[in-house]
Amino acid sequence: MSAAGTSPPGGVAAAADAAPFRSGFVALLGRPNVGKSTLVNRLVGRKVSIVSDHPQTTRRRITGVLDLPGVQVVLLDLPGFQRPFDSLTRRMQTAVDEALREVDAALVMLNAVEPFGGGDRFVLQAVAAAGLPNVTVLNKADLLDGRRLGVRLEEARALAGGALVHPVSALRGEGLDQVVEALAAAMPPGPRYFPEGQSSDQPLEVLIAELVREQALRRTRDEVPHAIAVEVAAVSERDDRPLVEVEAFLIVESESQKAIVVGKGGRVVKAIGSAARGEIEAVLGVQVFLDLRVKVRRRWRRDERYVERLL
Predict the structure, then answer these.
(1) The model's pTM
(2) Superfamily grouping for domain 11-185
(3) 3 state SS for the chain
């Protein structure tokens, strides 16, 4: 039989199978409180990074894994760009600087409801200086009407040097399809860094500490949140029944802060513990007993060794 008119074995499917797997790391960058953690959680499809209205909520590099057909995008939720002023903020900014040297692309987030400023320009300039492929998004677009959103998009494009800017709502999950497509297109050929189905690389103790801190941030006054840390002393699983026991400490810098976090009759720390327990149980899928106490460690944010131990 003549070979004329026949197709190679497998046809189009074989050609698709031959396409190399692509993967890479993407740094999420922006000013504090722009919505980076909310976006990572939305893209990954589960909670891997805590969220609050307070700046400096994200203190360490948090990894979220986005699996797509033939592509794996590893999202790095980073602290917001800031001027370091103690051991904690120096370490936070170092995490950002190091990520810019290591990643394959950047996702820069701008805030649709706040004026653009020097911090936004600095982030975009840092990405340009690193020579990274860049996807820029204008977050919280759902809070503006059509006319105002159009104006803000033009301002954002001008700030980004004429580059395409995607209007999105990380909170509502709106406008993200094109962002995902752009991120996937920016990924170079590479291996699968994480097994399919793994959404993060956070150790259990770190994840628990972050979930506790998230609830503390939601229930404390403005003078306390930056001074709060969480130290997980022990995590153990019972042999006789599905129960995880956690011993953890809320760390503050002064007795007055401790009084606020404990609350009258222990009401605040109990509320923090109850809410955190629910979050931990939702992640682990088992019942959790959380022993949560408050401890003073003066000036811990200026203690390089202690900050390193926590982060």
Answers:
(1) 0.72
(2) P-loop containing nucleotide triphosphate hydrolases (3.40.50.300)
(3) CCCCCCCCCCHHHHHHHHCCCEEEEEEEECCCCCCHHHHHHHHHCCCCCCCCCCCCCCCCCEEEEEEECCEEEEEEECCCCCCCCCHHHHHHHHHHHHHHHHCCEEEEEEECCCCCCHHHHHHHHHHHHHCCCEEEEEECHHHCCHHHHHHHHHHHHHHCCCCCEEECECCCCECCHHHHHHHHHCCCECCCCCCCCCCCCCCHHHHHHHHHHHHHHHCCCCCCHHHCEEEEEEEEECCCCCEEEEEEEEEECCHHHHHHHHCHHHHHHHHHHHHHHHHHHHHHCCEEEEEEEEEECCCHHHCHHHHHHHC
